Amino acid sequence: MSPSIEKLLIIQDRDRRALQLDQELRRIPVERAEVDARAKAATSRLEELKLKAKQVESERKELENQVGTKREQINKWRGQQVLTKKNEEYQALTHEIEGAEKEIFRIEDKELDLMDRAEKLAAEIKKEQQVLAEISAIAQRQKDTLGQREGAIKAELETLKADRGALCKDVDESVMSRYERIMRHRKDSAVVPVQHGICGGCHLQIPPQVMHQAKSSEELVTCDQCGRILYWSREFEPAPQGAVH
Ligand SMILES: [Zn+2]
Known about the structure:
The protein is mainly alpha-helical. The protein folds into two domains: 3-168, Helix Hairpins; 173-236, no CATH class. Helices cover 76% and strands 5% of the residues. The protein has helices at 3-83, 87-168, 173-186, 208-216, and strands at residues 191-195, 198-199, 221-222, 229-232. Strands 2-1-4-3 form a four-stranded mixed sheet. Helix 1 (3-83) packs antiparallel against helix 2 (87-168). The longest helix has 82 residues, at 87-168. Bound molecules: zinc ion. The site of zinc ion has 8 residues, from loops.
């Protein structure tokens, strides 16, 4: 294997690691947003319940006021009853009072229903508060982990970048730019082994002539199909006839 291939393979190894880290790094803000969205959903559920509880309470207060007004009215009518001398008027007032009292019963029934609802909502709020506390704690832990992961990835990328700089100095500039061009285009690999007569990149058959060049030439040989740089690896060479293992 030519020395430049050996060096390129090391660089490629680092580059692939850097690409993988880069993808991971780009996923971190997405994951962070997902964590936030979960916590936000729990917060809005709680807010919604609190709002409902508030509405129920104000409805109940409104009914309480209605009862108060009706009681005042009844007292007023009772006062008038004491003063009146006309039986007809007295009877009419009794009728009004009875009507108002019935109305009060009806309103108080509604009030009881609302109190029942308020109680259920209070229990739901309590439960949702616990859920929110749990979700928030988990979210914080997840965000801490993401932050640590982000820091570790950035540090490793820095190291890879520095290492790469040093490694590239040893490789011929034209070879390096060729490698980089293929890597940019192919994304996964630029230098691939010839595996049993097949290109390790595009997996297509390599003509015997090219195969021979890859095996013996010090020059860089590329795959006609995908343009990747080829190298001959003993690992994939057929075992010689009669070889003893
Ligand atoms: Zn190929």
